[in-house]
Structures are given as structure tokens and as C-alpha cells.
Amino acid sequence: MKDFKLDVAFIDRASEIxxxxxxxxxxxxxxxxLYGPKSSGKTTLMYHLFDxxxxxxxxxxxxxxxxxxxxxSYDDFIDAFFKSTEHDNGIKTGTRRQYSLFGLxxxxxxxxxxxxxxxxxxxxxxxxxxxxxxxxxxxxxxxxDEFHKLDGLYMPDKQKRLIIELMNFFVAMTKESHLCHVIxxxxxxxxxxxxxxxxxxxKTSQFMKLDYLEKEDVFTWxxxxxxxxxxxxxxxxxxxxxxxxxxxxxxxxxxxxxxEQLFRHSLDDIAAKIKREKVAxxxxxxDYEDIEERRALLSRFIEENPIDRRKLTGxxxxxxxxxxxxxxxYDPVEGEYGIQGRSLEWGIKGYFDQM
Length: 355
Ligand SMILES: Nc1ncnc2c1ncn2[C@@H]1O[C@H](COP(=O)(O)OP(=O)(O)O)[C@@H](O)[C@H]1O
Ligand SMILES: [Mg+2]
Known about the structure:
Structural class: alpha/beta
CATH architecture of the largest domain: 3-Layer(aba) Sandwich
Bound molecules: adenosine-5'-diphosphate, magnesium ion
CATH topology of the largest domain: Rossmann fold
Strand content: 5-15%
CATH class of the largest domain: Alpha Beta
Strand order of the largest sheet: 2-5-6-1-7
CATH superfamily of the largest domain: P-loop containing nucleotide triphosphate hydrolases
Number of domains: 3
Radius of gyration: 22 Å
């Protein structure tokens, strides 16, 4: 295996793992919804949990990362969720992890054909699979990442939104028949909230927020990059770490970017570049037909961040767009909007300073 100058590390998250495990160790009774700003580490956390529990017997985990999947129609949904055992020959020899990641439910060829001809109800197929596993004393767990990608798909009769039907099904599987655990992750919490409001599912789910890393964890991490990331060419002073924290906060992805750039550039140059890029990003986002509304919205976050939703009435569409575009994030539990990350706060500040 090649030695890299900079390796990836998994920092802390012990309490979040414990929280997820607690959910799995109780009889299924609700859907667990993991939300948080983009790149806060949701996918990484779930893979980590997955690695942990797949080594323990008694769970059957179906992990579906919709990011990697093209979803434009109901048929794509069937492709993503179901897999005929006929096509599995090459895959079965691989590790369990590869196998599970390929698709949720393994089907016999007949059921697969019926599903494709829309003569079989996909929800019944899933329920039968859960029941089969339960009889064998295996606890099914469904994990769906990037859940919002299912938005815009409709059931074959074109009347019903697939995502609503699926949520209702998961409620039946958790709260009503206690058959399987369901963990759903999305960075678009604004959209998820709409789903809950639409289908009155709010009371049947738990929300768990995954925020960027805490200051303390970032300091522990960056004080020893030799240990955590196998970096030998440089180390970071307390002042360097302060500058990094001040520039990007606890965003692990951006911290990696800085660590990578530090092999070639000074920290001050890197920090300045990140801020310039974010100013450009804000300028680009604001420059739209409703430029005045966008400016007015963002300027409010200079004084206050996050902002209670009740103070931001009458602009739901724009707020939704800002969340979709990863400028703002929405916290459905607190009912507040905030800037997606420390570096973007610099972008907004810089944008208005230049005006
Ligand atoms: N606990 C962690 N420790 C170190 N790096 C992390 C951690 N969690 C996430 N990262 C890094 O941050 C980046 C974004 O994480 P990801 O899981 O894709 O975020 P999300 O799914 O919330 O958008 C990845 O490059 C990942 O390696
Ligand atoms: Mg993700």
C-alpha cells in the first residue's frame, strides 16, 4: 500500500456513534433522521457505524447511498432498491460490504420481473423480506443516504409522490409493526421538513443533528497530525491551529484541504484564498433575478447567525433555494436557519465589505 504524505483520520464522534447504537439496540419504533450541514460528516459517520455493526452478528444492514445513483424515474428507484440474485454471481464472492452496498433487497428473478412489470408492490416485497429476516432472528436495518434525491419521483399511477409513500411505509415498518430500523440522512433538512409536514409524519421520527467538529476536537486533532494523518513534513503551532479554526471552523473537509495545501503554501496564503473563493461563491449566488432579496437575506446573517425561522417570514421559496444551494442550512428541530460553515461566513462578510 502506498504511503501518502497526508492520510485521512476519523476524529471522535463517540457520542454520535453511541446515540446511533442506542437507536439500534431498542426495538424499532421510529425513523431516525440524521441531518446537518453539507460535509459535516454524515456519510462518514454512517459508514463507520456500518463497519462496526457488520462485524457483529444479528444485523442485516442495507446501506444505500443515493448520491451514486441516477434517479429520474420509478424504474430507477426499483433498480436502486432491488437486486435480482440472478445478477449477483460476480458480486457474491466479494465482501459483505460490497455486496450490501450494491442494492437493498435481493430478489428472485420472478419477483424482479413482476416488479418491473409493475405487477408487484415494492413495499410488500420489502415487508416480506423484513419478516423473513425477523423469523431468522436477524434485525434488518435500512440506511439511506442523500434521501432527498428521491424527490420528484412518482408512483406508476403518477398521482402519488414516491418519497411520501416510502416514508409512510417506513412509519408502518417502525412505529406500527416494529420490523426494521430506518436511518435516513440528508443535508437538505428544509426539504425533509416539507415531507414531514405534507404527510404528517413528524411525530413518528427522531431527529439527530450532526454538526461540524467541536473546537476541542479540532485542536486535539491538529496538535498531532503526525499521529492522526501521518504527516511528517510539518507540524502546526497553536497559533496555526487558531488560524485554521478561525477560517474554516470544524469542517473536516476544508481542514483536509488546508493540510494538503500546507505542503506547498503558507497558511496565510491558503486562508486568504479560501476567503476569496467564498466571496466569489456568494457573489455568484446573489447574482440572480431576485438579487435584492438575496442580498437582503444574507445581510441579516452578518449580525445574527443562526436566525429563528419566525423572524424570516414571507421568503420560504428563497430560503429553500439557499438551503438547496448549500448557502444556508435549516435545523428543523430548532427551527432556525444558519450559514453553512465558517468559511462561508467569511464569504458573506467579505462580499458586503466589498460593496
Ligand atoms: N469524524 C471525522 N474525522 C475526520 N474527517 C472527517 C470526519 N467526518 C467527516 N470527515 C471528512 O469530511 C469530509 C465530508 O464528510 P462526509 O461524510 O462526506 O459529509 P456529509 O455526508 O455530511 O456531507 C470527508 O472528506 C470526510 O473524510
Ligand atoms: Mg454525505
